[in-house]
Design a protein that fits this description.
It contains two helices and nine strands, in the order βαβββββαβββ. By secondary structure, the chain is α+β, with helices and mostly antiparallel strands. The chain has two domains: 51 residues, 2,3-Dihydroxybiphenyl 1,2-Dioxygenase, domain 1; 53 residues, 2,3-Dihydroxybiphenyl 1,2-Dioxygenase, domain 1. The radius of gyration is 15 Å and the shape is globular. The relative contact order is 0.19.
Length: 127
């Protein structure tokens, strides 16, 4: 069994799509739009076969995201090496994203950093 995809609602579909394409190498489909409901989505595919669906729909609520809260808290991307973690973290920092940890080796042995990315969602970058 494998996770087929993960989905998240976002306010600004195009900006979020561009973030994942620019920084994490996603490849986007052409998108979907249901004119009857106003629902829009993109499937973003990554080189290892993982997929992320980003979605938008009129009337969504947007609650404040806390750094530590119950429920889903981050999505982690493996970039392949310590050097790549360092480079991408620095690039994101230079582009104005908040680094909330790392790069560092965690107590359980991961080398990672974590940023507050698009729309307040946490993105972890690891080997």
């Amino acid at each position: 069994m494998k996770i087929e995809h993960i989905a998240m609602y976002v306010k600004d579909l195009e900006t979020v799509k561009d973030f994942f394409v620019k920084y994490l190498g996603a490849v986007s489909n052409d998108g979907y739009h249901n004119v009857k409901t106003g629902f829009r989505s993109y499937f973003l595919s990554f080189s290892d076969g993982a997929r992320l669906e980003i979605m938008n729909k009129p009337g969504m609520t947007d609650r404040r995201k806390e750094l530590v809260q119950a429920g889903y808290i981050h999505i982690a991307f493996s970039v392949g090496s310590r050097e790549k973690v360092d480079i991408l973290t620095q690039r994101l920092k230079e582009d104005g994203y908040q680094i909330i940890s790392g790069p560092r080796t965690t107590g359980d042995g991961y080398y990672e950093s974590c940023i507050v990315g698009i729309e307040g969602n946490q993105i972890e970058i690891t080997i």
